[in-house]
Amino acid sequence: MSAVTRHRLLLLLPLAVFLILGGYFALGLTKDPSKLPSMLIDKPAPTFALPGLSEGEKGLSNADLTGKVQLVNVFASWCAPCRVEHPLLMRLAKEDGVTIHAINYKDKPEAAKAFLDQMGNPFTAIGADKDGRVAIDFGVYGVPETYVIDRQGRVRYRHVGPLMPFDVDETILPMIRELSK
Amino acid sequence: MIPEIGHYALVLALLLAVAQSVMPLVGAARRDVAWMETGRMAAFAQLAAITISFAALMQAHVVSDFSVLNVVNNSHSAKPMLYKVSGVWGNHEGSMLLWVFMLALFGAAVAGFGRNIPPTLKARVLGVQGLIGVGFLLFILVTSNPFARIYPAPIDGNDLNPLLQDPGLAFHPPFLYLGYVGFSVAFSFAVGALIEGRVDPAWGRWVRPWTLVAWASLTMGIAMGSWWAYYELGWGGWWFWDPVENASLMPWLAGTALLHSAIVVEKRDALKTWTILLAILTFSLSLLGTFLVRSGVLTSVHAFAVDPQRGVAVLGLLILATGGGLLLFALRAHVLKIGGLFSPVSREGALVLNNLLLSVSAAVVLIGTLMPLLLDAFGHKISVGAPYFNFITPFLTIPLVMVMALGPFMPWKRADLGGILSRLWGVALLTLVSVMLALWLAGVKPVMALVGIAMAGWAGFGAVWEVADRVKLFRVPLADSLSRARGLPLGAWGTAVAHGGMGIAIAGMVGTTFWLAEDVRVMKLGDKALIAGYEVTLDKVEDLRVANYQTEMGHFSVRRDGDLISTLTAERRWYPVAKMQTTEAAIHTTFYSDLYLVLGEENPGGGGWVVRLYHHPLVPWIWIGSLVMVLGGCLSLSDRRLRVGVPARRAAPVSPALQPAE
User: Fold this and answer.
1) Which keywords does the record carry (chain B) (predicted)?
2) CA A115, CA B533: separation in Å to the nearest integer?
């Protein structure tokens, strides 16, 4: 291959990289990420046991996920959208009486505590997932994520991204009512 | 009636944009002066049409016309006037209108000011600007009409997201967009040059002022956004590595690289192919940024395809602009002549290293931001967040800062690294002194903090030293130094000021990241808390109703050594219409640190309130440094060699020996 052809092929490189990227985007667009079905839908939640935020505090394990229809919220103090959805979680816990368990994702326990002290704590129990291992089992795509779990501890619904009042009123609450019947 | 005028004006703008893209491009190909001239007129007319449209939407928001859907969704009659105005661009449709408005503004500016640009190149630049305009105007008209009506009109609106109702954020989007859109001019110049098949030093000179305007605006926009996050989100974090923030950081990194490589084109007629590529990529990242931010829901990659129709349109625009630009690059870049040669150790070499590091940084941020999306296509699920970025940042920033201080001392073509390093003894000494000072004030741990302070010192003092070196401070009489300082081109001042600003900002980032002190406690009325030498007393808590929210206000008094130095008010607000709560932190700032108080919930048990107290050392320097960087950009912009279309008025500078190499 002559130097000239090599040079010209090199000039093609940016376009090639971009086309590959564009292909991924197109693929991504065919899926609605906010409805990304969890691979776990209608299957039992993964088996896990996480420690609490500090020594001696109650953690979270899959045993806690049975017996009651509930939400599992994956959050982190460094995640801005989590702050946005937090008041809604507070409302769900306080006004609608929903049980919410939390997985604290790749976070410093002090930072997570500070976050909850400031914004309020809607969670019945929190498991600290420091290395994100359990989140991988859940198939967490990014924080925040929220799962609806039924009485048998099966994952019934997955919401990716911050909850908005619309999601809660139109989807989450009706679903919880339906499952609680 | 007025919203309809706005809508029609937008349709007219689309037609004018078509004229602006077709006529000058055809005219330039045929060397037809009249056709090329049409492009200029169309650019002015397009600006006029979009101004009318923008004003119409503004009017609907200001008078709270609830028959317009956009106003219903994003406004409320009780909202303060400032936020009625900023609400115009606080939503997807309105912000897209602002986007095309700025695009037209830049197009008209090129048409008006670019008098010394050769007619064919100018016609092509305007044509490409017109093409971008066509894409975006079509996008707005087809998928995001801001003037859609609603019948019957509701009594009142749904209010703007309360987090966005803030003076700091009101003007954050316009600056950010000025930056994003400004890079479109660099893109158009790059595409124009590829069509012409010619890039010369003059091209570098024409493209630089536009890139500078865009860069300075983007710097300002990002700084405002992070300042807002700092005081509004309620714990003093100023950067979250959120996809939306990353979206603005990527074009900033690429734009900074472009700014520097354009210098090499201008001065040395080298790095031309790379600079053209960078111009295309910078604008592509701006496009990506625009859409990561403005795709419906609030904040995350997840929002990318919330509305599939918009998602597809977005992708189409991205592919047309970036793909088209890169295709042209692949086909035409080989005709650009390879320019001046240089040794690896030289001003050019330093700028190449700068470009490499900045582009790698942009790529790292891009990968971190899009990785979840990309891997998802394979069925893998991973999450990338702050930990990834925090881990990788030092590896790129440290070498970048080292080169940043060295670069300006290097002559073009070939430099003597040993000689330059030995000239920098003063910088090394001052850096060492600041590290010792940090060691004395804050102790040896964390070690990274000392490394960070060394970087800040190296960058900051390096910039000061460079000016001192140029004006021969203390080596010639002071009066001589002063006259040399006056003779120094503004571009040289701009470089030093911007680099110094970076040093200041780094010091701020290091200070608040590593030396933050915090405390949380339940405080009853009259309780005192001690933090970083301050004594904070909770004096009073009251409930108030203001405009469109209710608020709980905590009044604090702050004492130091028994003397009252400040009284502060921290708030917790509740917006009933949007059903959202926000916190307003109370901040007492000195030049070198912030005392930051947040009022939390009322303690359900024994009374009192949860209060969080923070002490952020050096944090104001982040924004002071950013402002200094913007100032540097403005200084550089006013350098007379860049003043487009203005003939040189002054005689040659005092003596040739004073005229530096750039």
Assistant:
1) Cell inner membrane, Cell membrane, Cytochrome c-type biogenesis, Lyase, Membrane, Transmembrane, Transmembrane helix
2) 24
Which B residues, 291 through 320, put their C-beta within 8 Å of a C-beta on chain A? 297-306, 308, 311-312, 315, 318-319
CA distance B325 to B323: 5
Residue B295, token pair as written in the block = 């795709």
Ramachandran angles phi, psi of B428, nearest 5°: -60, -40
The pLDDT tens digits of the residues spanning A67-116 come to: 889 999 999 887 777 888 898 999 999 888 899 999 998 888 888 888 89
Contacts of B235 in chain A (CB under 8 A): 114-115, 118
- Which helix (H) or strand (E) element contains residue B17? helix B2-30
Residues in chain B: 662
The H or E element that residue B537 is part of is strand B534-546
Q: Report the share of chain B in percent with pLDDT over 90.
A: 44
Assign B278 a pLDDT band (cuts: 50, 70, 90).
Answer: very high
For residue B533, what are its two tokens? 């030498």
- The pTM of the full predicted model, rounded to 2 decimals, is 0.81
Q: How far is B592 from chain A (nearest CA, A)?
A: 24
Q: Sheet of B580-584: strands edge to edge?
A: B528-531, B534-546, B549-560, B563-575, B580-584
Q: What is the DSSP string of B85-146?
A: HHTTSSSHHHHHHHHHHHHHHHHHHHHHH-TTS-HHHHHHHHHHHHHHHHHHHHHHHHH--T
* Residue A47 forms contact with B (CB below 8 Å): no
Q: Hey, which residues does B551 pair with through a beta bridge?
A: B544, B573
Rounded to 5°, angle at Cα B650 from B645 and B651: 125
* B381 vs A32, A115, A140: nearest CB: A140
ipTM reported for the complex, 2 dp = 0.71
One-letter amino acid for residue B120 of the chain: T
**Domain locations in chain B?**
1-163, 166-404, 517-617
Q: Using CA atoms, how far apart are residues B465 and B451, in angstroms rounded to an integer?
A: 20
Contact assessment for residue B449 and residue B515, using Cβ atoms and an 8 Å cutoff? yes
Q: Is any Cβ of chain B less than 8 angstroms from the Cβ of A25?
A: yes
Residue at A19: amino acid letter: L
A33 touches chain B (CB under 8 A): yes
| pLDDT tens, position by position, B410-453 | 888 888 888 888 888 889 999 999 999 999 988 877 888 999 99
Total CB pairs under 8 A between chain A and B: 154
Q: Are the C-beta atoms of residues B273 and B332 closer than 8 Å to each other?
A: no
- Backbone angles phi and psi of B567, in degrees to 5: -115, 135
A105 touches chain B (CB under 8 A): yes
Count other C-beta atoms under 10 Å from residue A110's C-beta: 13
By Cβ distance, the residue of B308, B372, B520 closest to A117 is B520
CB B177, CB B95: distance < 8 Å: yes
Q: What is the DSSP letter of B234?
A: S
Give buried/exposed letters for B449-459 (b at 16+ CB in 10 A, else e): bbebbbbbbbb
Interface test with B, best of A2, A19, A25, A88 (most B CBs within 10 A): A25
Residue with tokens 């915090």: B518
